[in-house]
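Exercise 7. Given the encoded structure of a 533-residue chain, write a plausible sequence.
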């Protein structure tokens, strides 16, 4: 610890900033809690639309969650909504691959999911944070049953290649890394405070409360503030009955220098980000249950196989034209208003009469390349042999990212795990592989962590590269600061009688909540326009 750094007079805010450098966000939050400071958040709900939409028509482009949300809510106040969807199913990226599901990427092979009945992979959105109340509003209203998604499992492994120290190329339980890194950083801080090396205008009571907090976290000895391990990091021999194993045998902590050398501590956050909570949910039976619940309520307003090619505005009408994919015939439809939920990566290729400013704003938004692969295993070796129930195997393996274990059908014979989840350049590289090569790539990586079981257990696979899916061309919108400052406000405004909506017009890009809440805001603007017309 840098004593000189901590010896300067400073406020609590200054002190917390230095604590963050030493122990990360988790230690900051713990310190704030010890001092009686905390944070709260708010929930959201659909806007109340006063007045009537009777006699007014709306064309909604895209039957994803944003489009179906708008049709559902606007329909409550009398709008006649028609949804145009190019695919032959609703949900947009809210998809689940199960037996019989087909997907053909641009320039790729046709793929059919061959998982056993009742097994699936959510290759689009696959988890719901507890604070995404907009999504949970509809699962509650529609009666979509939920189950826990294990987003953080301390029993799961970390596996890092090409790092320094003895932890390289070795699966290590996350609870070992978390306990030892936190415990040893706590020891450094506690001993510094106890030895009065913090010459700060903190009161003696402040220091006592902070020391009490550090001890009560469960890592340190109350007598000398030393870290000697904790039961939470696991045992060499687990406690049990009788005298053998009896109390068990404590495990040895990893050395701080080895933890730092490995870089494994970089994945550790004791306080989760807003969207990456430990407590998350998934619909029982697959994420497309949410899309189907919407479809049950607005399906009679969806026209499938309608590929939009042109958007025009004439006076008080919006005219949409394109191809009917079933017979390759043309269509042209008109309405009073249009809510376009087509991803901007696709919309920029559609013929529109938008103003140059609006069109330029659409072109400023990049989309993230991203890939996933589901692997059906004939045996749940991660549960049977390693006692890991859900969560993520975190790696630094190029093109793999997380290997995620299923949070459903515990202790069943088989299971489908997520073999990789990659982004950016890694996704572009992996997506160039054939379907067979993608599977081989995923299996070779997993075999390093679960030798003797991973490759031999795989029965079938299903993969997707979202940047190569025709009506998506990317996983989600990826805004930079400049585009947020200039293009984002432009796209939130109406372009004549056309409004845009979707996850791309939110700060929750890539999440279902972003699509739903964007739809709520934009349809409220549409309703206000209609009431004033």
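Solution.
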């Amino acid at each position: 610890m840098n004593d000189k750094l901590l010896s300067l007079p400073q406020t609590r805010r200054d002190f917390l900033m230095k604590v963050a450098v030493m122990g990360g966000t988790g230690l900051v939050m713990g310190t704030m809690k010890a001092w009686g400071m905390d944070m709260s958040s708010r929930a959201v709900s659909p806007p109340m639309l006063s007045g009537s939409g009777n006699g007014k028509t709306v064309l909604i482009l895209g039957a994803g969650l944003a489009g179906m949300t708008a049709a559902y809510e606007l329909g409550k106040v009398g709008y006649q909504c028609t949804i145009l969807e190019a695919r032959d199913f609703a949900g947009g990226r809210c998809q689940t691959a199960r037996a019989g599901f087909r997907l053909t990427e641009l320039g790729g092979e046709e793929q059919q999911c061959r998982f056993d009945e009742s097994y699936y992979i959510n290759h689009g959105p696959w988890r719901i944070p507890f604070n995404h109340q907009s999504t949970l509003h509809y699962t509650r209203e529609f009666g979509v049953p939920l189950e826990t998604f294990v987003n953080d499992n301390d029993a799961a492994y970390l596996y890092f290649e090409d790092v320094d120290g003895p932890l390289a190329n070795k699966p290590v339980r996350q609870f070992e890394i978390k306990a030892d890194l936190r415990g040893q950083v706590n020891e450094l801080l506690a001993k510094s405070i106890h030895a009065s090396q913090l010459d700060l205008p903190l009161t003696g009571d402040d220091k006592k409360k902070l020391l009490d907090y550090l001890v009560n976290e469960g890592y340190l000895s109350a007598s000398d503030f030393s870290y000697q391990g904790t039961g939470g990091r696991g045992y060499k021999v687990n406690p049990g009955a009788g005298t053998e194993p009896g109390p068990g045998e404590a495990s040895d902590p990893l050395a701080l220098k080895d933890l730092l050398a490995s870089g494994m501590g970089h994945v550790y956050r004791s306080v989760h980000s807003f969207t990456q909570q430990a407590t998350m949910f998934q619909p029982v039976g697959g994420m497309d249950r949410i899309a189907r619940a919407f479809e049950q309520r607005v399906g009679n307003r969806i026209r499938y196989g309608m590929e939009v090619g042109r958007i025009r505005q004439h006076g008080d009408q919006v005219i949409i034209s394109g191809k009917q994919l079933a017979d390759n015939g043309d269509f042209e439809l008109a309405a009073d208003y249009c809510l376009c939920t087509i991803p901007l990566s696709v919309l920029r290729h559609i013929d529109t009469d938008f103003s140059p400013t609006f069109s330029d704003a659409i072109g400023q938004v990049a989309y993230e390349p991203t890939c996933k692969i589901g692997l059906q295993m004939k045996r749940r070796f991660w549960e049977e042999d390693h006692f890991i129930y859900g969560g993520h195997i975190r790696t630094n393996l190029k093109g793999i990212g997380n290997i995620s274990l299923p949070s459903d059908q515990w202790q069943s014979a088989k299971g489908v795990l997520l073999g990789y989840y990659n982004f950016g350049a890694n996704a572009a590289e992996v997506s160039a592989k054939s379907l067979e090569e993608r599977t081989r790539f995923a299996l070779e990586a997993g075999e390093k962590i679960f030798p003797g079981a991973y490759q031999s257990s795989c029965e079938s696979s299903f993969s997707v590269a979202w940047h190569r899916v025709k009506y998506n061309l990317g996983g989600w919108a990826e805004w930079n600061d400049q585009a947020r400052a200039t293009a984002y406000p432009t796209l939130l405004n109406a372009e004549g009688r056309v409004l845009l909506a979707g996850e791309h017009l939110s700060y929750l890009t890539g999440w279902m909540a972003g699509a739903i809440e964007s739809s709520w805001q934009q349809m409220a603007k549409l309703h206000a326009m209609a009431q004033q017309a």
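Remark. The longest strand covers residues 306-314. Students should compare their own answers with the one above.
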